[in-house]
Amino acid sequence: MAMLEYNEILNRRFIIMDGDPYEVIDAHIFRMQQRKPQNKTKLKNLITGAMTEMTFHGSDKVEEAEIGKRGIKFLFTTKGESWFCEEKDPSKRFKLDVKLIGNAIKYMKANSMVEILTFGEDEDERIIGVKTPVKVDLKVVEAPPGIKGDTARGGNKVVKLETGAEINAPLFVNEGDIIRINTELDEYVERVTK
User: Fold this and answer.
1) Threshold 0.85, pTM exceeds
2) 36: which DSSP letter?
3) Most buried of 97, 135, 146, 176, CB within 10 angstroms?
4) CB-based burial of residue 54 (10 Å sphere; 0-12 exposed, 13-18 middle, 19+ buried)?
């Protein structure tokens, strides 16, 4: 396993602390006057989901986590459990708790491909998360009519998507439209079709 210096602990890197994998959410390297440089970070525990802040100094080194990724197919969600199957073998089905999936569940529709993140090797391998593509296209199933001149709320309205998620969209988006969503920012990107 690779060791990372304090200045290599940057955004979107994965590290191991106390035996658990962490994702670096934010990193800020700075130097205060005559002192040695520091790296102030925000970390997310990929097992528990807990957020923590940690400051690394010039002499600190941490182990880089080897996070595995593989494609799977999302099938459906029922009673707080989401069911998936292997990409190449639909008979190999398994379930994951909705809490493990997190915000990604809002943008997953039946038979869509997603990526699972794994930590550990062989028998010790654990699924630690699910990632959707950065941009997904979803159909609008409910959209209140846009009222001309209604720009007091920034020219946006809340629309409901086929997955049940609600998102802010421009006034011109109507029921039946397919729109592109940025899943990382939970934002409308563009209208794909009318």
Assistant:
1) no
2) P
3) 146
4) middle
